[in-house]
Amino acid sequence: MTENGDATPLVQLENVNKHFGALHVLKNINLTVSRGEVLVVIGPSGGGKSTLCRTINRLETISDGKIIFDGQVLPEEGKALARLRSEVGMVFQSFNLFAHKTIRENVTLGPVKVRGVAKDAADKRAMELLERVGIAAQADKYPAQLSGGQQQRVAIARALAMDPKMILFDEPTSALDPEMVQEVLDVMVGLARDGMTMMVVTHEMGFARRAANRVVFMADGQIVEENTPDEFFTNAQTDRARDFLSKILTH
């Protein structure tokens, strides 16, 4: 039950399948994400994690099954889909910032164009968010002048600027140099503590342990196991999960 007393999940996936031609990449996925929950999805490459993440705002269509977001079945297209996308933030592996716009302009673009927020109000909010992610001093620079870690923090601020109900993170640190990973994860941990609903596809097991309410382990297009971080990392129930953990936790 969340603070507003709404116990219905924010996201429900029911028997979701996805085929790329002959390749069956999502197999009968049943999953819910509660309001305020941080769900971390881990597993070997090619297991369907990113595809799963991208179906929730319909960047990937599904072959069959049903996805319900905030009580509504995911719309196919048009204005209803645009509205949904404005309520689901997305942070990608590559930062996808507009190179010809300043950092501040990157953050204000969505609220002004999509939400109809006045420019002054959008600017004020953008500066608050850039402060929150620790890069307010970079507001008038262009993306190419920032490090990868700083650019990814701009991408997070840009997602937050739309006041989304949820943010999807698709391997947000995998394109970063190792020394920049922590600065991005620290921002994400802060969001988790503030109660943002998040679905995070990541290889960062430390983040999964620190910030997740629940860990979902995917392999071969299926959810193999899900549990609390403590239980999953200390007492995995399936051979597939134990095998995966033995390979990554020994390094």
How would you summarize what this structure contains?
With 251 residues, the protein is α/β, with parallel strands linked by helices. The protein contains nine helices and ten strands.
Outline the structure in words:
With 251 residues, the protein is α/β, with parallel strands linked by helices. The chain has one domain (11-248): P-loop containing nucleotide triphosphate hydrolases (Rossmann fold), CATH 3.40.50.300. The protein is 38% helix and 24% strand. It contains 9 helices and 10 strands. It has helices at residues 49-55, 78-87, 103-113, 119-132, 148-161, 178-193, 205-211, 229-234, 239-248, and strands at 11-20, 23-33, 38-42, 64-69, 72-73, 88-91, 166-170, 198-201, 214-219, 222-227. It has a 6-stranded mixed β-sheet with strand order 6-7-8-3-9-10, sandwiched between helices. A 4-stranded antiparallel β-sheet has the order 2-1-4-5, with helices on one face.
Uncertain segments = none
Strand content: 15-25%
Terminal Cα span: 39 Å
Give a short account of the largest sheet: 6 strands, mixed
The whole-angstrom Rg is 18 Å
Annotated CATH architecture: 3-Layer(aba) Sandwich
Which percent bin holds the helix content? 25-40%
Write the CATH fold name: Rossmann fold
Query: What's the CATH H-level homologous superfamily?
Result: P-loop containing nucleotide triphosphate hydrolases
Q: What's the mean pLDDT score?
A: 91
Shape: globular
Supply the number of structural domains. 1
CATH class equals Alpha Beta
| Helical/strand content category | alpha/beta
Order of helices and strands: EEEHEEHEHHHEHEHEEHH
